[in-house]
């Protein structure tokens, strides 16, 4: 009976030691996990800003293309008007 008590006490001490080691390792890992989470959040914010800037760039490019098209149309109208004025009067 005494052996069973000693064994139970040994198991309890071993369990306590393992729990202590596990808690210590978890405490050591916590700052690294927090830092990784902060870095991930910052990276997500930068990515979102980049996507927003890309969308703005695409919108600006579309506006530029529209303006170029309008400029070409105006140039064609100007050419037509110039040809009419240069045509000999009847």
For the termini, the CA-CA separation is 132 Å
Q: Tell me the number of strands.
A: 0
What is the overall silhouette? rod-shaped
Order of helices and strands: H
* Cα radius of gyration in angstroms: 38 Å
Q: Characterize the quaternary organization of these chains.
A: single chain
Q: Uncertain spans, ≥5 residues at pLDDT below 50?
A: none
Secondary-structure content class? mainly alpha
**Nearest-integer average pLDDT:** 84
Please outline the major beta sheet: none
Secondary structure: helix percent: over 70%
Beta-strand portion reads: under 5%
Number of discrete helical segments:
1
Relevant terms:
90 residues; 94% helix; rod-shaped
Compact overview of the structure:
With 90 residues, the protein is mainly α. Helices cover 94% and strands 0% of the residues. The radius of gyration is 38 Å and the shape is rod-shaped.
């Amino acid at each position: 009976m005494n052996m069973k008590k000693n064994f139970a006490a040994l198991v309890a001490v071993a369990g306590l030691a393992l729990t202590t080691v596990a808690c210590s390792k978890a405490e050591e890992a916590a700052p690294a996990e927090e830092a990784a989470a902060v870095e991930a959040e910052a990276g997500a914010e930068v990515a979102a800003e980049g996507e927003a800037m890309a969308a703005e760039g695409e919108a600006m490019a579309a506006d530029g293309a529209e303006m170029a098209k309008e400029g070409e149309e105006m140039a064609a109208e100007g050419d037509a008007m110039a040809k009419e004025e240069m045509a000999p009067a009847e």
